Amino acid sequence: MLDFAIFAVTFLLILVGAVLYLYPASRQASGIPGLAPTDEKDGNLPDIIASSSLHEFLVNLHEKYGPLVSFWFGRRLVVSLGSIDLLKQHINPNRLSDPFETMLKSLLRYQSSLNADTGESHMRRKLYENGVNKALQSNFALIQKLSEELLAKWLSLPEAQHVPLCQHMLGFAMKSVTQTAMGSSFEDDREVIRFRRHHDAIWSEIGKGFLDGSLDKNMTRKKLYEDALMEMESTLRKVTKERRGRSFNRHVFIDTLLQGSLSDQQILEDTMIFSLAGCIITANLCTWAVYFLTTSEDVQQNLYKEMDGVLGKGPITHEKIEQLRYCRQVLCETVRTAKLTPIAAQLQELEGRVDQHTIPKETLVLYALGVMLQDSSSWPSPYKFDPERFSEESAMKNLSLLGFSGSQECPELRFAYMVATILLSVLVRKLYLHPVKGQVMETKYELVTSPKEEAWITVSKRS
After folding, report:
1. Gap between the Cα atoms of 232 and 194, Å rounded
2. 295 phi and psi, to 5 degrees?
3. What is the pLDDT of residues 184-220, one digit of tens each?
4. Beta strands in 127-187 (DSSP E)
5. What's this model's pTM, rounded to 2 decimal places?
6. Kind and range of the H or E element at 255?
7. Which parts of 402-457 fold into alpha helices (H)?
8. Closest of 299, 357, 360 to residue 333, by C-alpha
9. C-alpha R_g of the chain
């Protein structure tokens, strides 16, 4: 399974470091067009930093040199693929892995899965996926309830009041993920607030400081990060202990892990990964979906018509979600337009060939997903938010190849799609969503793409 994920510039350092530690390789040029090293020691790292993000660096690199490019990270060669056609050539002969999970666990210093054999890793991955799927099924009504609570909050606001979209979506995602992953103890808002404080402290430092060593140099920041990680792990251990061997009204993610043959440390790691990644991906998918709806009255009205026609006045159900085809197109186009996860990576374990070029063994190969998602040869009018493009089977196939749809979705994105669908079914049938005039939306490309500043909207009640 292609579990695509993305990472910021600093994650490249961590991944390369892990790869080179495990797979020391010779420095070997490949003849692939690209940049020569800017610095003998750091390679093109100064160029990446000057570009503000790895995604923006790759956009410029592919514009200059074409769909297949190379650059140097330190003394090691990195190859980037920037077209779907090249991706098709590359994915089949290589062993597939989940770079997001590997990098995140490396940053958190979790080692229990990094040295596991293939069979054990596959079993653990299937258990993780089953945990997400079962948690969604068992907590469908809960997510709907949380969506209704957000609706009630927005309905209580004066029509002209600006709504801080990012803030509200992160709070909604936190409640959805914590209660779905760990159960009823997070129905207490104080527990959610405490969890969010630790989550934010960890996430803000993930990758930050690893590039220049600033985290280790700043003892105050380092202590805040380590204290937050320790407190969050303590919470997860407490939940594990409370739910082990007991039955509850709602089945949650951690219950599935407890039913497997995992150690306590493996349960902690997988719950931490889902809690961290699930919150960020869900929050940003919901944020971008609502924001893009405010920019297009036609799309918003078409979505309302579908919701009204399929659901009427009744609540959304599992069975009816499959009928909400236009809603799925809206979410797919949200992922594409926002470039929700702009980069993925694989290790070239064996020498391979792409577009008549040889990729040396043990080269790090990047998939420039953000470049591919706005490639005009694959997506007509690529900068336009147009959900209708996904009425074509070819567009859905392209999105699936990139890991954003179908069987190749990562579990966290599958969770986010479901939560966002439930949320939109509640909001769009009751509210008009409006943009704030004069707002300029700038994008921050990190582990998950997000607005650089708060995104503001206004709402009004549908008659």
Report:
1. 9
2. -90, -10
3. 889 998 999 999 999 988 887 775 544 445 666 788 8
4. 163-164
5. 0.90
6. helix 253-259
7. 411-427
8. 299
9. 22
